[in-house]
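Hi F.,

I've been meaning to write this up properly since the lab meeting, where we talked about keeping a consistent format for the predictions we share between groups. The idea is simple: the sequence comes first, exactly as it goes in, then the structure tokens exactly as they come out, then a line or two of notes. No screenshots and no reformatting. I'm using this chain as the first example so we have something concrete to point to.
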Amino acid sequence: MGRREQDAESRARAEAAFQGVLARHGAAGLAPRGRGFGSAALKIDGKIFASLASGDRLLLKLPAPRVDALIAEGIGERFSTGTGRPKHEWVTVAPAHAARWVGLSDEARAFAAAKAEA
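Output, unedited:
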């Protein structure tokens, strides 16, 4: 299987796993297919807490210590908006860990809700 086919397969697996995240948060089939950051994101009070990023990675907003723990466990990678601009409360999780996506999205939703109430 060539690189292109592997990329397409990875994106398809990620889309299927993300549908589980959408269903968990009452948005199954509702994610728009627009372009740009946040175009297919789950939000609370207009603030993103989960999205599909780079085509096949789950992007989550979590407390910085939780992001650090996921990175230390080898589950996540810190999200960056550019060279030298890491976001301390954002992590991406590869499709290899898709079995954890729903649970992690629950954590992200709770974190976003608490921030919205503050």
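Notes:
The longest strand covers residues 86-93.
Strands lie at 42-44, 47-53, 57-61, 76-80, 86-93.

If this format works for you, I'll send the rest the same way.

G.
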